[in-house]
Amino acid sequence: MSPFNQTIHNHQTFTLTGIPGMPEKDFWMAVPLCLLYGVTFLGNGIILVVIKVERSLQEPMYYFLAMLAATDLSLSLSSMPTMLSVHLFDWHSVTLDVCITQMFFIHTFGGVESGVLVAMAFDRFVAICFPLHYATILTHGVVIKIGARVLLQSVSGVLPVPFLIKRLHFCHSHVLSHAYCLHQDAMRLACADTRVNSIYGLLAVIFTIVLDALIILISYCLILQAVLGIASREERLKVLNTCFSHICVVLLFYVPLTGMTLIHRFGKHLSPIVHMLMVNIYLLLLPVLNPTVYSVRTKQIWQQIV
């Protein structure tokens, strides 16, 4: 076996990283991590149970909220095994296949979350602009088809990523920047040409995240136009209040994601702690805050929880 092949073989195992520069304090990250995951599972689980049990909440708006809660649970479960193994058990090694599997699920459920937010924006658009036709447009069959399309679109968009990573040779450093595997993080460790990976990653972001954000923006422009046509100020505020929770969740999703993407592309000179904070806000805080926003802001859900 040639030295080059030996090097490639030796780097089929990646090393996960905890807090940059503070490995001795990794154990103390386990407590807040366990709390975050516990709150995530409890909050999203309660929303799923309440929507399933309470018949008055079995409407398209709440079905989409249930999809969002299920996606948040899945996103947390995708990152949890390696996060806890690093900070709780001090296990830093992960094989290439496990790393690829984890990045597939993290990126897939990130795309699903973006698609569900678009579906929720469409729900608000129909409810406000076409209230008399809401029940006929958003039937149970249509909601199921929208959910299936969002899932299929995200899976098909991320599916090439494992094959693009698998074809690369890793002969440089095998230390990842986070306690979980991301495509852009693993890609930078390759000693082969990664232009195909970079181009595909950029196109995937444009045709999923950016396009979804534009659709949401257009939806709210049309909603605002319809709301401004309402004569009563009280009625305008009442209608806009039904969109407030969704707007908060959209900002919670796209602001950290945009910051994470920009820092990865243009902020390579920044401290590793900045990169870690942006990604952790996206993966850890978002699934915690989403159910909190909807539980507090949505009167029907709060009443059923109480």
Quick recap:
With 306 residues, this protein is mostly helical. It contains twelve helices and two strands; from the N terminus they run αβααβααααααααα.
Please tell me about this protein's structure.
- By secondary structure, the chain is mostly helical.
- The chain has a single domain, classed as Rhopdopsin 7-helix transmembrane proteins.
- 75% of the residues lie in helices and 2% in strands.
- It has a two-stranded antiparallel ribbon.
- α4 (96-129) packs antiparallel against α10 (233-266).
- It is globular and about 65 Å long.
- The model is unreliable at 1-10 (pLDDT under 50).
Classify the fold: give the CATH topology.
Answer: Rhopdopsin 7-helix transmembrane proteins
Give the uncertain stretches in residue-range form: 1-10
Q: Report the major sheet.
A: 2 strands, antiparallel
Assign the CATH architecture.
Up-down Bundle
- Can you tell me the number of structural domains? 1
Top CATH class: Mainly Alpha
Mean pLDDT score: 85
How many DSSP E strands?
2
Proportion of residues in β-strands:
under 5%
Radius of gyration: 21 Å
Q: What portion of residues is helical?
A: over 70%
Q: Strand order, biggest sheet? A: 1-2
- Ends apart, CA distance between termini: 66 Å
Assign the structural class, choosing from mainly alpha, mainly beta, alpha/beta, alpha+beta, or little secondary structure: mainly alpha
> What is the CATH superfamily?
Rhodopsin 7-helix transmembrane proteins
Number of helices: 12
Order of helices and strands: HEHHEHHHHHHHHH
Specify the overall morphology: globular
Function: Putative odorant or sperm cell receptor.
GO molecular function: G protein-coupled receptor activity; olfactory receptor activity
Family: Belongs to the G-protein coupled receptor 1 family.
Subcellular location: Cell membrane; Membrane
